[in-house]
Amino acid sequence: MPKIGKVKAFIHRNPDDSWVIKSATVSQESDVKYYISGLFEFDKVENAYMVDKTNAIRLDYASDGLYVDSNGNVGTAQKYYRENHDKLVKAQRKLSRMQGSKKYEVKSNNYMKQLRKVNRIHRHIANQRLDNLHKISTEIANQYDVICVESLNIRSMSNKGFGNGKATMDNGYGMFLSMLSISCLMEISVL
Question: Using CA atoms, how far apart are residues 183 and 49, in angstroms rounded to an integer?
Answer without folding.
Answer: 13
